[in-house]
Amino acid sequence: MSCSPRRKERPVERWDEELAELSGRVRHWPAGAALFREGDGADWVVVLRSGRVKVTCSTAAGAEVVLWILGPGEVLGESAALGERERPVSAAALEPVTGLCLPASSFAAHLRARPLVMSSLVRLLGRRLREAEEKLVELYSVDTLGRVTRRLVELADRYGARCPAGLRITLPLSQEELAGWTGSSRIATAKALRVLRDHGWIETGRREIVIRNVDALRRRAGRSSAGSTGGLQRGRVSGAVPRQA
Fold this sequence. Notes:
Layout: H1 15-18, E1 25-29, E2 34-36, E3 44-50, E4 53-58, E5 64-70, E6 75-76, E7 90-93, E8 97-103, H2 104-113, H3 115-141, H4 144-159, E9 160-163, E10 166-169, H5 175-182, H6 186-198, E11 202-205, E12 208-211, H7 214-222
Antiparallel strand pairs: 1-8, 2-7, 3-6, 3-8, 4-5, 4-7, 9-10, 10-12, 11-12
């Protein structure tokens, strides 16, 4: 009697490759469309194949807070396979997105059958939790200019493409979305961007940012604190923590 060799388990690097064998439905979302909303029923998981998505939650005042930005190869809505009945967060396409939608039951069965894959998911959830906690600490210890600078450095590292002026951020973020990601008001974020433009470190356009001096941004981000100006005009941007994003 012959049997097929058992697949060797390994830590998950790309969830689209790991879950390719599972049956699901391929869906497409245009830019700006909601993949799901906070409070929706949670009965399926999305594996991103192309495009990038913002994952958000809402404050009691109704402001949007950006938690993570996810791209191809990543999974979202995974809490549906872990017993959540309602979505704890919202997800929306920042650009045209294609994803494989899997029933939560299929994803859960896959996790039970492959302990190393379950371990990879636990590490993924732990990493996302740490990122959220770090940004919460930033909210109370880093001024608005510092938080904006840190997010710009992160964008440059993840989505920067060389151009004649420096690094063009290929992720189409609006000023409101950047404000939600930094935990700042739109007005405070606009002031921070103006300071950075005045110093010649960035250029901005509609949903477009070009980093002209990433080293200067890294230095400012590395010493950002509520009591540090980093050599910039702190009076231009309040160091107080806004109550709404």
